[in-house]
Automatic annotation (TrEMBL):
Residues 85-133 are annotated as: Disordered. Residues 93-102 have a biased composition (Basic and acidic residues). The keyword Cytoplasm applies. PANTHER family: MIP21584P, SPOT14 FAMILY MEMBER. GO terms for biological process: regulation of lipid biosynthetic process. Pfam families: Spot_14. This is Mid1-interacting protein. The keyword Hydrolase does not apply. It is found in: Cytoplasm; Nucleus. Its main location: cytoplasm. Keywords: Cytoplasm, Nucleus. One of its GO terms (cellular component) is nucleus. Belongs to the SPOT14 family.
Length: 168
């Protein structure tokens, strides 16, 4: 019984945190922030989910390029779930055919403890600056991806509404 209570309370705490972000119209973060893009994406996928009452009807929609509407619907829902709930992939798994990490946990801990960035002659400040720039580049890319995915969810929602004769 305690196990179910723990899961329920953790889920409720996560939902409450997301609701606080979603309800916050006077956002504390910029419209250019990653949080804003994530919020827009999640809201649009939720709207898409609420609109597409019969997902199998998406199979009747015309296919645009390589994306069939039903697969796009499933992929967008999966991405939303992964964004909100999924944990990180284990470092030892492959990522599209390439190794994510060749270091063992022991090597990584030893390297970190020694302050070694893996590049000879690089001090911690240079390593941190390089990591910060990498993070900024990845955030820009993630914002672009979230904008494209949000636009895809919007388009799919409108296409479904046109298909079923609902007001757009």
């Amino acid at each position: 019984m305690s196990f179910n209570t723990d899961i329920s309370s953790k889920l409720e705490n996560s939902r409450n945190s997301l609701r606080k972000i979603a309800r916050n119209d006077n956002t504390e973060f910029s419209k250019e922030s990653i949080l804003h893009e994530m919020e827009k994406f999640v809201k649009m996928v939720n709207t898409m989910d609420d609109t597409v009452l019969v997902p199998s009807r998406l199979m009747n929609l015309p296919q645009e390029g390589d994306d069939d509407p039903f697969s796009l619907f499933s992929m967008l829902n999966d991405l939303k779930t992964e964004l909100l709930w999924a944990g990180a992939e284990p470092e030892e798994q492959s990522d599209r055919g390439r190794r994510v990490s060749d270091m063992s946990d022991t090597d990584s801990e030893t390297s970190s403890a020694a302050g070694d960035s893996g590049i000879e002659g690089e001090d911690e400040r240079e390593s941190a600056a390089r990591a910060a720039e990498d993070c900024r580049r990845h955030l820009r890319g993630l914002r672009r991806c979230l904008r494209l995915l949000t636009a895809s969810a919007t388009h799919l929602t409108r296409s479904y509404q046109e298909e079923v004769g609902a007001p757009v």
